[in-house]
Amino acid sequence: MRGNGSFYEFEMDRERLAAIWLAKHAEWRRVRDLMTAAGWSVYEPERDAQGSVWAREREERFAGALAAQAAFGARRREEADELRAEVRLSAAPSRLIRVVADRAGLRPSEVLAQLAERIVVGEDGTVSVPPFTPAL
């Protein structure tokens, strides 16, 4: 079955896969040349200035990606809690909401949202909204 390998995401983009392999090959040659020039028998990452810079940059990108993913997840959770509703009101309540919205400089939907934010549910299940003045 295809798709189980680590390069599955690149199967359809052979140019990208080739570029990755070329970059890896170039990096291995750079490390080999550094080790030869420095006389190392074992690679010492802490003494590899260029490799250390790249490693820090990679860690910073990874941390940034994790932060972006966390922020995206938080936005998604917040959006999941939102309620978007289309409300059809009879003529009398519609006129009243429009008048209140005009006086407050709001859209009718904003007045309804402010009403909804102030809903109080009593112990007996009654629903009410304490008096308030809609505001921007």
Report what the structure shows:
The protein is mainly α. It contains four helices and two strands; from the N terminus they run ααααββ. Strands 1-2 form a two-stranded antiparallel ribbon. Helix 3 packs across helix 4 (108-117). The longest helix has 33 residues, at 49-81. The chain starts with 13 loop residues before the first helix and ends in an 8-residue tail after the last strand.
The general outline is rod-shaped
Instruction: Going across the biggest sheet, name each strand in turn.
Output: 1-2
What is the strand content?
under 5%
Biggest sheet, in brief?
A: 2 strands, antiparallel
Please tell me the overall pLDDT.
87
Order of helices and strands: HHHHEE
Distance between the termini: 59 Å
Radius of gyration: 30 Å
Determine the number of helices (DSSP H or I, runs of at least 4 residues): 4
Number of strands: 2
The chain-level structural class is mainly alpha
Low-confidence stretches: none
Percent in helix: 55-70%
List keywords for this structure.
two-stranded antiparallel ribbon, 136 residues, 4 helices
TL;DR?
This protein is mainly alpha-helical and 136 residues long.
List the helices and strands and how they pair.
Elements: H1 14-38, H2 49-81, H3 91-104, H4 108-117, E1 120-121, E2 127-128
Antiparallel strand pairs: 1-2
